[in-house]
Sequence to fold (182 residues):
Amino acid sequence: MRQGSGGHGAAIRFRAAGGFLLVAHLLLVGWFTLRPLDVPWVSAANLQPFAGIKADLALGPMQAARQIGGSLLLLAPLGVLLPLAGGRVHVSPLGSLVRTVAAGAMLSLGIELLQTGVPGQVVDIDSLFLNSVGVALVHLAVVPAVRARLRRRTDVVDHAALLREDASQGATPTIPRVGIAP
Fold:
């Protein structure tokens, strides 16, 4: 984007808002997942993939929807907040998805590893999987459409700025051609 187009300040504001919302969300997730719980007993850690999902499904549809949905939604906002904090509009959709999901998975892994030392919290490999899927689904549902809209908007702003720039400079002077003497 051109400096004089006025979009530079908007990009900085979007990045700042994205960074602020990202930090706020991560603080909320940290408080929610890393606070000690006062429980009479704690189940064993689940390190077998999909065992927790199967156990949740065996409890009934309402309990399964609550447990699985909670894991899907916990880090899902990162699917939008990470690209927003990055602030790039012209980027490969696949590259953006891979970076965002990888960052979400690493944050989820960090949370699961930190939970090993928190009383009442249990490590669950299925949470890592579901958190990453939630990030991917929200990213796919929101980010490509928003980036396409922003690209159209910035292209219009850039085009208008170029037209203003051309009009302010006036016509380009022409130099008369002089033929070569024999």
The helical segments are 7-34, 51-58, 61-74, 78-86, 93-115, 125-169. DSSP finds six helices and no strands in the chain. The CA atoms of residues 80 and 142 lie 7 Å apart.
